[in-house]
Design a protein that fits this description.
Elements: H1 2-17, E1 23-28, E2 31-34, H2 35-51, E3 56-59, E4 65-66, E5 71-79, H3 81-86, E6 92-99, E7 102-110, E8 115-120, E9 125-127, E10 130-131, E11 143-146, H4 156-169, E12 172-174, H5 179-187, E13 193-199, H6 201-213, E14 217-219, E15 232-237, H7 240-253
Parallel strand pairs: 3-5, 11-12, 11-13
Antiparallel strand pairs: 1-2, 3-4, 5-6, 6-7, 7-8, 8-9, 9-10, 13-15, 14-15
Helix pairs in contact: 1-2, 4-7, 5-6
Bound molecules: D-MYO-inositol-1-phosphate and calcium ion (CA) (2 copies).
Length: 259
């Protein structure tokens, strides 16, 4: 199946690279949508529903949600829209296919980085056709990717405390501005630790499968698998021991999720 999804995702990304697009705010200046996000999503919905007739969708834009199907596509037309709007190249198209509530295929394509990540459940994870694997770095040598709760700044202080504690026990941190890409970089062994206070299923559905097929692990605040139907704190690491350390640090700052 994934080999039939890849050309559709690449064609969709072609709508993203064209110049000239409108930028709109979704409630705040940090939360943007562009005319390219809408065009990519429209294209993907048309082509993916034809690929799996009767399938449903969970898409970021326009509240496009129809989950009452065995097969559901989880789509982020552009992950890293703030980068895209500013001409920063770290952004991608992210598409996951779920069956009975479980991801079965995931494709993440970053046209400017020219990186195509994909996975099919049980078949491993690939970057540009080559198998990828998470790193074996210990926590002390880990590279963290994290964010400061961009859309809910009331959580930023807590985030900064968590990020500070992870940072002090690890190597360094980065913020690329595309959660899907950051999780794929972890799958490819380039970063090792991940924390974000609140992500949506379309941010991590495809990359989460790519990460787990590459040997990585992820969970929410409760230590359980990430929800594919609602927002979630998102923790990920190259191995379970490092994930547990992140979870312990999070729990040392928060007794419960504030949302
Ligand atoms: C955002 C990116 C970003 C993350 C935000 C997401 P968008 O997605 O993944 O890295 O920090 O929480 O909302 O809005 O560019 O699709
Ligand atoms: Ca996103
Ligand atoms: Ca998006």
């Amino acid at each position: 199946m994934v080999e039939r999804i890849i050309p559709i995702v690449k064609e969709a990304a072609g709508l993203m690279v064209r110049s000239g697009f409108d930028v709109m705010e979704k409630g705040s200046s940090e939360n943007l949508v562009t005319s390219s996000d809408l065009a990519v999503q429209r294209f993907l919905v048309g082509r993916l529903s034809a690929l799996v007739p009767g399938s449903g969708f969970l898409c970021e834009e326009d509240d496009f949600k129809d989950l009452s199907h065995e097969y559901v596509w989880i789509v982020d037309p552009i992950d890293g829209t703030a980068n895209y709007a500013r001409g920063i190249q770290d952004c991608c198209v992210s598409v996951a296919l779920t069956k009975g509530g479980e991801e079965v295929a995931g494709v993440v394509y970053s046209p400017w980085r020219n990186e195509l990540y994909w996975a099919e459940r049980g078949c491993g994870a690939f970057l540009d056709g080559r198998p990828i694997r998470v790193s074996d770095r210990p926590f002390s040598d880990g590279m963290l990717c994290a964010a400061m709760s961009t859309y809910r700044k009331e959580y930023a202080q807590t985030c900064s405390g968590i990020i500070f504690d992870i940072y002090m026990r690890s190597n360094d941190f980065r913020r690329f501005g595309s959660a899907a890409l950051e999780l794929c970089l972890m799958a490819a062994g380039k970063i090792d630790l991940y924390f974000e206070m609140r992500l949506q299923p379309w941010d991590y559905a495809a990359a989460g499968l790519i990460l787990s097929e590459a040997g990585g692990v992820s969970c929410g605040f409760d230590g359980k698998r990430l929800s594919l139907s609602r927002q979630s704190m998102t923790l990920a690491a190259n191995n379970k021991a490092n994930l547990d350390t992140i979870l312990d640090i999070v729990h040392s700052h928060m007794d419960e999720l504030p949302y």
